[in-house]
Specification:
This protein is of the alpha/beta class. It has twelve helices and 13 strands. Helix 1 links the parallel strand 1 and strand 2. It is globular, with a radius of gyration of 20 Å.
Length: 311
């Protein structure tokens, strides 16, 4: 991919920063396109001189997307959201990106969907992701669609959120303690994106489900985090009736979960046994325990010195 121009729609987000770094290492030129380009300026020093460009683009406005993608060799759509804008971003926005990529003559498009994308999903999020996939396939049939599980990494809002709660609260409520997850390391998913872009002949038109090597329940994940940060936490596994009641107030500021996220929790978030995934793109997934302790150390009572002191 050396010297090829890759446009990352939504490239300043959590996954986007890792994708950009994979592309920098491959020698590609990276154009980061999003509503507020200044939010992604932190990426510039990570690349070489002149290796990064920025463009303003709103996936719900086709004209801005077309301008951002113009002249691109390869395109990645990382745009995603929760709430009332899901249809606009996940469906219409995905279509806008795919159509612009086709019109620009891009040779490969990678579209980031989500594990659990299903037209019959009980959640609006899952349905909108499935509808977005269909829109992409209609506009750019050779697009590679990636369905990552929940992502973990140094800047994540998943493991870090739970760790912060466990570190602060004497008792930690756990919703849907038996729900199963297969979280994926964000850097592994970024590698999968780069490999799909680099070989569209092998990966174009395919759908890959990307889950990590470990499957754990919500309760097991909480207990592992507590052990890792040296906290003797007391967990309260909430019954579904109470969890559903809490989710009813999900539209309020600071609510722990939305109604739609509650619906998503009713199904396990794991890779289908018949799906192709990391192995098909040549990436060995990283276990959570291999990398997370390095950044979770800040949640220990004595920081990194907590390893040698009392928990």
């Amino acid at each position: 991919m050396k010297d090829r121009l890759v446009t990352l729609i939504g490239g300043g987000g959590f996954l986007g920063r890792y994708v950009a770094q994979e592309l920098y290492r491959a020698g590609a030129r990276v154009r980061v396109a999003q509503k507020r380009p200044r939010d992604a300026w932190f990426l510039k020093p990570l690349g070489g001189l002149g290796q990064t460009q920025f463009a303003a683009a709103d996936v719900t406005r086709p004209d801005t997307v077309a301008r951002a993608i113009e002249g691109s060799d390869l395109v990645v759509n990382l745009a995603g959201t929760f709430g009332s804008a899901m249809q606009a971003v996940h469906v219409a926005g995905a279509r806008n990106v795919a159509e612009a990529a086709r019109q620009a003559g891009a040779t490969a498009l990678v579209h980031i969907s989500a594990l659990g994308a299903d037209p019959d999903s009980p959640s609006a999020y899952g349905r909108s992701k499935a509808q977005g996939e269909q829109a992409v396939r209609e506009a750019f049939p050779d697009a590679t669609i990636l369905r990552p599980s929940i992502l973990f990494g140094r800047e994540d809002a998943f493991v870090n959120r739970f760790a912060g709660l466990i570190a602060r609260a004497p008792a930690v409520p756990v919703l849907r303690a038996g729900a199963r997850f297969q979280p994926a390391y964000v850097a592994d998913v970024a590698q999968a994106v780069a490999k799909a872009l680099d070989n569209p002949a092998a990966h174009g038109g395919r759908i890959y489900e990307l889950g990590g090597p470990d499957v754990a329940t919500m309760g097991e994940l909480h207990r592992w985090i507590a052990e890792t940060i040296g906290r003797d936490a007391h967990f309260v596994e909430l019954p579904d009736a109470l969890g559903s009641l809490i989710a009813m107030f999900g539209m309020l500021p600071g609510a722990p979960i939305t109604r739609d996220q509650w619906r998503m929790l009713q199904s396990d978030n794991v890779v289908s046994p018949v799906a192709e995934g990391f192995a098909r793109v040549g990436v060995t997934p990283t276990p959570l325990a291999a990398v997370a302790p390095a950044w979770l150390v800040r949640f220990r009572r004595h920081g990194r010195f907590g390893e040698f002191g009392a928990a």
